[in-house]
């Protein structure tokens, strides 16, 4: 089944706010051929790990992204014990499993956060159970100073070396409301690699500009978004009201996936500056009418 929809109408009438949809519906632009490859998938169900696997499989499976012997780095979002604030550990664990099944040589989960910030999330246990490793940067050798030629405000920064020295980078944020950035998903989650957080937080516009500039440094191989239970107010740390879309999204275009996920909290992506500016900077595509999007029951 194919439906021709504009980006705004798709967001306004989004299935992602709770209504059901028949399995394997295809949403695409009238300008795209009927056999166009799927760009973004969304799998829904009551089992987060199953949702994650189904969403990736619908893109072609993890073997499409991970080859034998690859060094894989995963970036989840660990923000403590409040409901809807951290990436679901079962989504992270299942991603580790899929990477090893695809032949990965090593799967490492890392961010700027110390071990205490991960403990309450359940992610450490899920990663280790799946055979992955946790990495907590602590020494000078763990960091790399980098230039951002395309940056408008952020001309250089310091990031975890693992974020650059890998074969496959998988971004695994949780989608949620953010008091300063309006919305946090793939683009905002990249701050998890950045060592100069204080430089970003100098007002709302400055934050959006820095997020945009940082996004020009990274090109994740795959984005897997946890939208099983999400914070819809008082983000990013909560506590606050939550919603349970019970979904996992997967795609390769950070901007497009973030634009689509804005519908989870009824946001037009063009009103989220870092998403709009990242599109204008060539990081990805904000116009969802140019994407093929598939949602189904996991």
Notable features of this structure?
single chain, 298 residues, alpha/beta, Rossmann fold, ten-stranded mixed beta sheet, two-stranded antiparallel sheet, 10 helices, 16 strands, 26% helix, globular
Give a brief outline of the structure:
The protein has 298 residues and is α/β, with parallel strands linked by helices.
CATH architecture: 3-Layer(aba) Sandwich
Classification by helices and strands: alpha/beta
Global Rg: 18 Å
Strand content: 15-25%
Given this structure, which CATH class is correct?
Alpha Beta
C-alpha geometry: globular
What are the segments in which pLDDT stays under 50 over at least 5 consecutive residues? 1-26
DSSP E strands, number: 16
Largest sheet, order of strands side by side?
1-2-16-3-15-12-9-4-5-6
Largest sheet: 10 strands, mixed
Task: State the distance separating the first and last CA atoms.
Answer: 18 Å
What does this protein look like?
With 298 residues, this protein is α/β, with parallel strands linked by helices. It has one domain (66-286): Rossmann fold, CATH 3.40.50.11440. 26% of the residues lie in helices and 22% in strands. The protein has ten helices and 16 strands. It has helices at residues 7-12, 48-57, 89-101, 115-119, 123-129, 186-189, 197-200, 204-215, 254-261, 273-280, and strands at 2-4, 25-28, 40-44, 71-76, 106-110, 133-135, 143-147, 156-160, 168-172, 176-178, 182-184, 222-227, 230-231, 242-243, 247-251, 293-297. A ten-stranded mixed sheet has the order 1-2-16-3-15-12-9-4-5-6, sandwiched between helices. It has a two-stranded antiparallel sheet with strand order 7-8. Strand 7 and strand 8 (156-160) form a beta hairpin.
């Amino acid at each position: 089944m194919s439906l021709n929809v504009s980006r705004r109408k798709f967001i306004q009438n989004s299935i992602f706010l709770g209504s059901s949809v028949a399995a394997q519906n295809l949403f695409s632009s009238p300008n795209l051929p009927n056999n166009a490859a799927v760009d973004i998938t969304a799998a829904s169900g009551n089992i987060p790990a199953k949702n994650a696997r189904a969403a990736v499989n619908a893109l072609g499976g993890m073997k499409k992204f991970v080859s034998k012997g690859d060094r894989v780095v995963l970036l989840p979002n660990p923000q403590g014990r409040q409901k809807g604030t951290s990436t679901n550990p079962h989504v992270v664990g299942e991603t580790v499993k899929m990477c090893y099944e695809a032949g990965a040589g090593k799967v490492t989960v890392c961010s700027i956060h110390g071990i205490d910030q991960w403990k309450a999330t359940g992610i450490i246990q899920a990663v280790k159970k799946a055979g992955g490793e946790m990495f907590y940067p602590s020494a000078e050798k763990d960091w790399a100073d980098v230039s951002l030629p395309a940056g408008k405000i952020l001309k250089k920064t310091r990031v975890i070396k693992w974020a650059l020295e890998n074969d496959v980078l998988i971004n695994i944020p949780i989608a949620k409301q953010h008091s300063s950035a309006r919305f946090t998903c793939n683009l905002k989650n990249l701050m998890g690699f950045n060592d100069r957080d204080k430089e970003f937080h100098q007002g709302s516009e400055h934050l959006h500009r820095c997020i945009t500039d940082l996004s020009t440094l990274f090109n994740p191989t795959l984005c897997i978004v946890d939208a099983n239970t999400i914070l819809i107010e008082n983000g990013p740390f909560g506590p606050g009201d939550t919603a349970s879309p019970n979904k996992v999204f997967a795609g390769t275009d950070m901007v497009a996936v973030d634009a689509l996920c804005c519908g989870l909290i009824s946001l037009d992506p063009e009103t989220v500056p870092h998403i709009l500016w990242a599109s204008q900077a060539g990081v990805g595509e904000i116009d969802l009418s140019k994407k093929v999007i598939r949602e189904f029951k996991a």
